[in-house]
Design a protein that fits this description.
- By secondary structure, the chain is of the alpha+beta class.
- The chain has 3 domains: about 200 residues, no CATH class; about 50 residues, no CATH class; about 120 residues, Superoxide dismutase, copper/zinc binding domain (Immunoglobulin-like).
- The protein has 13 helices and 10 strands.
- A 5-stranded antiparallel β-sheet has the order 7-4-3-1-10. Strands 2-9-8-5-6 form a 5-stranded antiparallel β-sheet, with no helix packed on it.
- α3 crosses α4 and α5 runs antiparallel to α7.
């Protein structure tokens, strides 16, 4: 019991350090914990909560094993704070080398890298900004994690030594270790819950005016007087220059703000039919079902239509989660950097036509809807020949 609580105390001691690493990497608070939830198939807040709970349970288990093993031999007995701190630090380094390094390199890192590819195998290099930053800074994370493990071990060992010292001294007296442990557990749970609520739940899920105030203040930090509306009216290069200065949480605020507004298009077939003199010159060549990517909703059909000498890409019964500067790309493998930019998406809902004369859709057969300035992928469709 003493070891389990000692592990919780150590886990809480590095709790704020973990959020400090998130801040240093300019990723969403709680992203470090999210790394634990991603390999088991979770995402977003569920992955973060899973990682937080898993972290605390693991810390408690390590403490329990540490304290239990200290009773195997007289030389292992923890009877002083110095010995407890030293033994805890050594234990933490061993856990880091034997468990943390292999799991991080061979389980978590591949899982994070898989976040750059969607279920259909389409390359989505920038679709998960936080995962990308974690991969890019993995060396820093490994070094920082070693320091965190040492801090955890020292705190855990010191707490265990302190409680065991009282336990030994209280033999034959009325000292109540259980009462002290209960108070410690309750304090840790309340403190952890309060901090998790502030750093994880509120920033990720608040859809109130607080978000708008935060977005405005964050944009103002990037450029004085900058607002969401002004940002939208800027040209592409101006936006790219500002995005290069933005931390990931500001980008997330902008992307979330865009989802609140819908635009509608109602292009008919008249524009396409007007290109032909007879119905024989109008041919539906390819079709694809639209699917959402990376948690975004999307539905509808996309057609490739030949109308005389012109080729059109037509969306019908279409809708997609709205985003900033959504563009349509025709690609070979889903990588927009090697594809054709058809142009700005007219609206995130409704029927719409785009002329693509000159593009070989047999070769460039994957349609991608992506935020041009953020690289955030929203939807895709695989074009297949009609009748084949």
């Amino acid at each position: 019991m003493i070891g389990a609580v000692g592990g919780l105390v150590g886990g809480f001691a590095i709790f704020l350090i973990i959020f400090g690493i998130d801040a240093e990497l300019s990723v969403t608070p709680g992203t470090f914990y999210k790394m634990v939830g991603i390999p088991v198939g979770l995402s977003d807040i569920s992955a973060t909560i899973f990682g937080l709970v898993g972290h605390m349970l693991t810390a408690s288990l390590i403490g329990a094993v540490f304290c239990f093993c200290s009773g195997f031999h007289q030389r292992l007995n923890i009877k002083s704070l110095r010995k407890g701190a030293f033994a805890g630090g050594i234990t933490a380094i061993a856990v880091y080398a034997i468990f943390f390094i292999p799991i991080t390199l061979f389980v978590m890192t591949p899982a994070l890298e898989s976040q750059t590819t969607d279920e259909a195998g389409l390359v989505t290099t920038l679709a998960n900004i936080d995962s990308k930053k974690l991969i890019e800074n993995m060396n820093m994370i490994l070094i920082g994690s070693l320091e965190m493990h040492i801090v955890y071990g020292i705190v855990m060992g010191t707490f265990c030594a302190m409680m065991l010292k009282k336990e030994y001294a209280s033999i034959g007296t009325t000292f109540n270790n259980v009462h002290a442990i209960k108070i410690t557990i309750i304090g840790i749970i309340l403190a952890t819950s309060a901090i998790a609520l502030y750093y994880v739940l509120i920033p990720s899920y608040s859809q109130t005016s607080f978000d708008q105030i935060t977005l405005s203040s964050e944009l103002n930090k990037i450029q004085e007087g900058l607002t969401y509306s002004k940002f939208l009216t800027m040209n592409r290069q101006e936006k790219l220059d500002l995005v290069a200065k933005m931390p990931s949480h500001t980008i997330t605020f902008i992307i979330n703000e865009a989802t609140k507004y819908d635009t509608i298009s109602s292009d008919g077939m008249d524009e396409i039919v007007s290109q032909v003199q007879s119905n024989n010159e109008l041919k539906f060549l390819q079709i694809g079902g639209i699917q959402g990517l990376k948690g975004n909703n999307a539905e509808g059909k996309v057609y490739v239509i030949e109308a005389g000498d012109s080729i059109f890409l037509r969306f019908e019964k279409f809708s997609v989660t709205n985003g900033p500067d959504l563009h349509i790309f025709l690609t070979k493998s889903g990588d927009i950097s090697a594809g054709f930019d058809v142009g700005v998406l007219k609206a995130n809902k409704g029927d719409q036509n785009y002329e693509i004369t000159g593009i070989n859709t047999n070769e460039y057969s994957i349609v991608i809807i992506s935020s041009d300035i953020f690289g955030q992928y929203y939807a895709s469709a695989k074009l297949v020949k009609i009748g084949k």
